[in-house]
Design goal:
Glycosyltransferase; Beta-galactosidase, Chain A, domain 5; nine-stranded antiparallel beta sheet; alpha+beta; five-stranded antiparallel beta sheet
Amino acid sequence: MSGPMNVVSKALRLGRTLRYVPLEAIRWRLMARAKRVYYRSPLYGLQALMPDDVREPQWVGVELFAGDPVAGAAIAKGQFTFIGTTLPLPTATDGSLRTWLPTQASALWIFNLHYHEWLADLRVAGQRAVARQLVADWLLTFGTYHPVVWHPYPTSLRLVAWLTHGQWLMDGADEDLRQAFYACLQRQAVYVAANPELDLGGNHLLKNLKAMIYGGLALENADMYGQGMAGLLRQLPLQILPDGMHYELTPMYAAQVLRDLLEIRAVLRNAGGAPKPVEEAVRKLGTALGFFVHGDGGLALFNDGAELDAPYVAQLLRQSGADDAPEILPDAGYARLSRGGMSAWFDAGKVGPDENPGHAHADTLSFELDVGRERIVVNSGTYAYQHALRNTFRATAAHSTVSLEGAESAEVWGGFRVGRRPQEVEMILQGGAQPLPGGDIWVEGRHDGFAYVGAMHRRKLVMAADGSRLRGEDEITFRKAARRVRAHFPIHPDVNVRLVSDMEAELETASGVRLRMKIDGGRLDVRDSRYAPQFGVMKPSRQLLVHGRAQGGLCRLSWTFERLG
């Protein structure tokens, strides 16, 4: 019976996932798959060999963010590093790569290789001859359609990279290479315009629209430019929430979208001026992104993402002209408590947009805690997309929130799928962190992600007016049979943890800041854990756990992080 039951279980999970997907998105996905037959056919191959009017494009790209000279020097020696993984790609005697599709690489790594964003690294490293050889080699194999390499997402990024660095790349190149490069650039622009990722939307679609805007200006194609601009102006009010946060609710992807909008704005300003909605979206998104910046200058790890380098984050915010970061993002469902050098970020929002929660984690009501410039309580990160640990890092237990035995607050599965997910998520005190007598500030949230097992989770955070302590209250109510409760507190790898008793632990940061964690209700424990601050990077860490049991259909846990000395 296990086989048929497993099939039924998977079918039900798929149904719980597809119920949120618009029919138009499903139709577009099926159409995109059908079109692959045409693109693979000799008909398209013959038609796409050489456009009739090949000419040098307008080099519209603006380099706002310089490449990495160290990475450029490594690439010149055949060492490519993406998402935390370095692979040596051997070259033939003529300098061409032996493979552009290394079998040992993940799909995301291969995508990164074909973005051609490494042109910026080679440019700043003064490696034009290497860059030209790599592009010439790429054109021989992938100058026409390939189902992986010409996926609309990498093709969009590659087109932008070519139009940003193409003039430098082609300066002094022989005529055959120039003609092949210009022809392929034109083919890719037309391809992206015909294949926007309307099934996914989100940051993917914005990348496609950006490529259309660049391509339309570069090729003086008014229809392509108009398609890109009209699509962008439709998407901005959908994807940028009223509080400024990107609707995928992931700090790292908000940073990606902000960079895209900054570069689009720069290109449009050079072309005569950026529309007001673009200018406003840049400022609003920059302000929202500033909310997620920790004391060390990196980003919070809610949902998929990475901390990112602090100087890069600072440059994004500076170029955006962001206002001072707010204490609350009411539409996204995030709040920050900050007093006296202690800061806590609280997630009381949905996991992401229902139609596309691909970057969602089961992290509702999680929080992250800093003291000064040091992280204390963290979410565990992402590590990788195509990996056996993908959903381990997405699971409830990898986040600083409450889990129930045998249940997840969001049904994460596959690489980017979510079935059952919280529908009623509320951040109490919509006006933000409210003061209590004595100046303490607090915020509260609740969610129904456990409703399918008859449970509801409510969490309240209270920060002392002087920033000396953060107190938390978790309340789990059961309408059905009670389950074992665990409150998870992943601790940053740089923090030492010592369990004093089953009610108390001591923590010490790298700089010597000491804290005490005490609980009231339940039993305190410490376990080994893992922390992934960047893609491809995984560090051993510790996780404090509070084990609780319900009595009379109710489990209450109270806990406090208090600075010592």
